[in-house]
């Protein structure tokens, strides 16, 4: 391939000087011929054309040069502004990454509240069973499951990486969702509750699996809280894609939310739970936005929370 060559500035200056010298030589030669009255024919015509048109051409070239200098100055200013903007963007991204780590830590600690509360209730019930040994064994097994759930949160907290940003990677969302549904479904089946997964095709997101799981656990736990009051119900986790985004909806057939609750869903410390801290949904939304996604409540689609994430664009991922 040919190498693209740029004309250096000094070459342009030399070319202009050579053209100027050629003009001066031609003008001197012509003036001498005019003085002797021997400048006739094509040379006389050329002299008249050059003499009359050269000032216009020089003026035009001067205007182009001035305009070029101004454009160069503007480009330099724009490059400096872009450099400052990049530096500012880098600082903001570092701040966002720091915030994301602390938000994830808060999310993990917040999720400890749910299994610990369930564990206390199970232990209270076990202590009241008296001599019903089979029932006590069942309650102990359920308590152990909740203790393991709490320990898994602590393991997640300990295993958080020192890097200060979400660990973006291709995620097979169907696999993650089914694993979560199986784990939680086995814990709540005896309460008459069902966790169902609706996924008609594979969808891969570019996100952090720890963040995604923390968000979904919070949404499912909110639905379980609403359904336990009735003693039965179904939670549906739907997976799909819309407009180049991976979309997960968590729905349940529990009672609808009143307008006052909907208005403060994502406000910190606002909760309808007796044992809640009011941090779950604000943290879940912050985690979603740290992954360039979002979490919203879809009133038009019934009682559903919608999590959208960037699709994985790598076809070989």
Summarize the structure.
The protein has helices at 9-35, 42-127, 133-158, 173-188, 209-228, 259-263, 280-290; strands at residues 169-172, 193-199, 204-207, 233-242, 245-252, 294-298, 304-310. It is an alpha+beta fold. The strands form two sheets. It has a five-stranded mixed β-sheet. Strands 1-3 form a two-stranded antiparallel sheet.
What layout of secondary structure does this protein have?
Elements: H1 9-35, H2 42-127, H3 133-158, E1 169-172, H4 173-188, E2 193-199, E3 204-207, H5 209-228, E4 233-242, E5 245-252, H6 259-263, H7 280-290, E6 294-298, E7 304-310
Parallel strand pairs: 2-4
Antiparallel strand pairs: 1-3, 4-5, 5-7, 6-7
Helix pairs in contact: 2-3, 2-5, 2-7, 4-5, 5-7
Plain-language structure description:
With 317 residues, this protein is α+β, with helices and mostly antiparallel strands. The protein has two domains: 9-87, no CATH class; 170-317, Histidine kinase-like ATPase, C-terminal domain (Heat Shock Protein 90, 2-Layer Sandwich), CATH 3.30.565.10. The protein has helices at 9-35, 42-127, 133-158, 173-188, 209-228, 259-263, 280-290, and strands spanning 169-172, 193-199, 204-207, 233-242, 245-252, 294-298, 304-310. The strands form two sheets. A five-stranded mixed beta sheet has the order 2-4-5-7-6. A hairpin with a 5-residue loop joins strand 6 (294-298) and strand 7 (304-310). Helix 2 packs antiparallel against helix 3 (133-158). The mean pLDDT is 76.
């Amino acid at each position: 391939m040919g190498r693209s060559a740029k004309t250096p500035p000094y070459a342009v200056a030399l070319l202009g000087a050579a053209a100027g010298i050629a003009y001066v030589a031609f003008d001197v030669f012509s003036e001498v011929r005019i003085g002797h009255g021997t400048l006739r024919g094509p040379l006389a015509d050329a002299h008249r054309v050059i003499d009359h048109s050269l000032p216009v051409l020089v003026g035009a070239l001067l205007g182009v040069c001035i305009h070029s200098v101004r454009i160069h100055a503007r480009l330099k200013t724009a490059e400096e502004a872009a450099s400052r903007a990049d530096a500012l963007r880098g600082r903001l991204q570092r701040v966002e990454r720091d915030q994301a780590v602390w938000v994830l830590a808060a999310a993990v600690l917040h999720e400890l509240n749910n299994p610990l509360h369930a564990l206390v209730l199970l232990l209270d019930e076990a202590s009241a069973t008296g001599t019903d040994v089979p029932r006590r064994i069942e309650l102990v097994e359920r308590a152990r499951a909740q203790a393991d759930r709490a320990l898994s949160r602590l393991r997640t907290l300990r295993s958080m990486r020192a890097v200060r940003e979400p660990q973006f990677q291709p995620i097979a969302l169907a696999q993650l969702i089914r694993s979560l549904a199986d784990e939680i479904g086995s814990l709540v089946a005896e309460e008459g509750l069902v966790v169902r997964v609706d996924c008609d095709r594979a969808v891969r997101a570019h996100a952090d699996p720890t963040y995604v799981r923390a968000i979904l656990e919070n949404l499912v736990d909110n639905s379980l809280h609403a359904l336990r009051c009735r003693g039965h119900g179904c939670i549906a986790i739907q997976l799909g894609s819309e407009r180049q985004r991976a979309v997960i909806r968590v729905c349940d057939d529990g009672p609808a939310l009143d307008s006052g609750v909907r208005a403060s869903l994502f406000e910190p410390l606002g909760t309808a739970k007796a044992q809640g801290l009011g941090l779950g949904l604000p943290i879940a939304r912050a985690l979603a936005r740290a992954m360039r996604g979002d979490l919203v409540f879809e009133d038009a689609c019934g009682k559903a929370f919608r999590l959208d994430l960037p699709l994985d664009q790598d076809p070989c991922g």
